[in-house]
Amino acid sequence: QIDVLKADLESAEWKVLENLILEDVLEQIGQLIFEIHLHWPGFEVSGSDSSVVRFWYSLLKELELQDFRLFHSYKDLSKPQLFLKKDIFNASSCYTLSWVNTRWK
Asked: How is 14-81 classified by DSSP, letter by letter?
């Protein structure tokens, strides 16, 4: 069991998160803290912008379905204001998202 898993994987986080879900190990994690990057799809993630966003959303939704609840988010405004290589006002290409496993014992 892992009490807290914190990861800053420089755009590999989406595939690592997918693998945590597919390998069915999330129940062994109490808190999950990921720095996510939105300036490009990420390592081993490709497709149209809409398919990339759907992929990202499906992973975040799966966390929710497995009883993880977002309890904190941090928008790093020191990072470029990019979303899939497009300038977005008042956004950030980097966020830190923190979830707690509500079934953690």
From this structure: HHHHHHHHHTT-GGGEEEEEEEEE-SS--TT--S-HHHHHHHHHHHHHHHHHTTEEEEEEEE-TTS--
Tell the burial category of 81 from Cβ atoms under 10 Å away from its Cβ (0-12, 13-18, 19+).
Answer: middle
Architecture of the domain defined by 2-101: 2-Layer Sandwich (3.30)
Extents of the domains making up the chain: 2-101
pLDDT in tens, the chain (105 residues): 999 999 999 889 999 999 999 999 999 999 999 999 999 998 889 999 999 999 999 999 999 999 999 999 999 989 999 999 999 888 899 999 999 999 998
Task: Judge whether 90 and 79 are in contact, CB under 8 Å.
Answer: no
Integer Cα distance of 96 and 76 in angstroms: 8
Single pTM value for the model: 0.91
